[in-house]
DNA sequence: ATCATAAATTTCGATATCGAACAAAATGAG
DNA sequence: CTCATTTTGTTCGATATCGAAATTTATGAT
């Protein structure tokens, strides 16, 4: 938990000036790199509940950073995509984010990073 | 994050029947094993802000699981200690908790657990 | 003794976050 | 086709959680 807090803490701090929470950032980043996604898909991606996704996407929509559209062929599903301000924002913020993650992780050598990934993968999937 | 979620998720699930959140449990557990602590000390221990500790201790106090006393020699500080129902509850819940952590962690061998601890310690302290 | 500063806690305002209950839409069995 | 079931998302009620401002108490310098 301490390692996790330290890492996400630094990530969160760099998002503050842009008034983004970690979840909001994660949603923007997911769409930025994967293209428009369903709320369900976003939930799976950022490891949050569907109920929570409703709230987070609401807040992003209020800020005009994303747009919601119903699918024509399955009207239960919502397609979440970036607006141009949203695209501009994440395009500006993401590089700094990548730098920070990079910097935090350089506490460990390449080999150690690989080891850590392997161990956490085991622990995370339970296999 | 996935590893952290899986672990804390299982911990949280076992606390649900007793209406305890993870933070509430962490506070009870800390006092149970270390004796009465200050809210500041509790915050440092469970890695949460002082503001948050006020809320968590409030909820535990409402349930009569802990007691708050001001120190006589420094009335700014609050001493948080277990009531007898609190002691009974944590005494009952903790063993199950330990089992679950144990079970989750046995996905990794002893050696792997040591490795993981060492790597996370580095990452967590930034050294 | 007095006052500026520091420390511990609380309050405030804003989101996050979840589980459960609900609504709407799709699907599949007969 | 029709109804039960499943899927997707929303709403509701509760707590967590933080940073910043406020409050109370202690401390140290003069």
Task: Give the tags.
DNA-binding; mainly alpha; homodimer; 6 helices; globular; three-stranded antiparallel sheet
Structural overview:
2 copies of one chain form a homodimer. Chain A is mainly α and 127 residues long. Chain A has a 3-stranded antiparallel sheet. The model of chain A has no long low-confidence stretch (mean pLDDT 95). Chains A and B meet through helix 1 and helix 6 of A and helix 1 and helix 6 of B. Chain A binds a DNA duplex (30 and 30 nucleotides) through helix 2 and helix 4.
Short structural description:
The first copy, chain A, is mainly α.
Total beta strand runs of chain A = 3
**Class based on secondary structure composition and strand pairing of chain A:** mainly alpha
Question: For this entry, what is the oligomeric state of its chains?
Answer: homodimer
Q: Output the number of helix runs of chain A.
A: 6
String of helices and strands of chain A: HHEHHEEHH
Query: What gross morphology of chain A would you assign?
Result: globular
Tell me the helix content of chain A.
55-70%
Strand line-up in the sheet with most strands of chain A: 1-3-2
Beta-strand residue fraction of chain A: 5-15%
Average of per-residue pLDDT values of chain A = 95
Ends apart, CA distance between termini of chain A: 21 Å
Largest pleated sheet of chain A:
3 strands, antiparallel
Rg of chain A, alpha carbons: 16 Å
Low-confidence stretches of chain A: none
User: Pair with the most extensive interface?
Assistant: A-B, 25 and 25 residues
